[in-house]
Amino acid sequence: MTEWLTREEALARLNVRPQTLYAYVSRGRIGMQPDQADPRRSQYRADDIAALATRRARGRSPQAIAESAIAWGEPAITTPISTVLHGRLVYRGQDAVALSATATLEETAGLLWATETAVSFASLTTAPVRKAGTPTAFAHLSALAAEGWPSLGRQPAMLQQDGASATSALATALGAVPGPEPVHERLARGWSVDAVGAEMIRKALVLLADHELNASTFAARVAASTGAPVAACLLAGLATLTGPRHGGAGAAAIALVEDAGRLGPDEAIARWLAHDRPLPGFGHPLYPEGDPRADGLFSDFKIDDGLLRLRNAVLAATGLHPNIDFALAALTLGLRLPADAPFRLFALGRSVGWTAHAIEQVTSNRLIRPRARYDGPVGQDR
Questions:
Q1: Is 210 a catalytic residue?
Q2: Which of 67, 107, 160, 342 has its CA 20 to 30 A from that of 301?
Q3: Which of 204, 213, 231, 221 is nearest to 137 (CA)?
Q4: Model pTM?
């Protein structure tokens, strides 16, 4: 639930006069609602106030603004593709969790790519890949990137075709069997999952399709800004996704679950924290009150008692809620998917968002080339 503050609490956190608080509300920078206990009084949205307080603390110098944009800071790129707003993930104005109730990844691509043309990820090959997985995904995308047309100067419709072809190749490399069906059904068949499991895979793919300007998406946009082929942009995103702080977090979440099963939740949590390691699968800077993507998956998927005990123990010990990585770990264990299924689902779903951002970056015709603030020694003239 969103936290709401009284007027006195809001003024104290911002350290401003009432007139300034009211000005922020009138400009839409702070949400306000009537106090249910006393309609004559108002309440103010806590996360809006926290964001404002952070900006004011950083100052408004160009250097402070630029540095704050690097990690969870000031927005750096304007986009209508997606955003996280008051604890909700939004795809072009639509709530992503609500969309995931019925949409396929193909339909989500149509939305994020802003096209009315039906998107298909139908397999371009008639034979399944003999050994699917991350290495195969890199090999397939690398081949497409090496042969692809530069994206600069090409029309969005052509770039969308390139993105669909790259995602199709990625799906096959990650285990989807050949066929014209929606990609979640083909992936479920490749993993020998029933229709109920296929629906969970569909929902996960939609929830993973985009997430604003995350690290892999930024990498894809940087590649696109140079005019690289769309497949190369997806390859840049895939490479970035492999890190344990991004798409690799699902594997770490499974390791934590296994530790909890062997040692008990409390002991497993203590051991992870004792090594100054963040608990994988829990907490997210953009969702302090809980990741809605995890809640969206859990709404139709009953996790076992061991996972419930771990979730409750983490909440009691740290106050952290499960995030999408924990949900993917639970889905992988519950459906008996391949051990690297969290990464495969992440890569396949996010390829749609990478494509959307690559196309947007190419059509903006702007190179992403930030400057570094040098703090090393300066050579003397001789």
A1: no
A2: 107
A3: 231
A4: 0.84
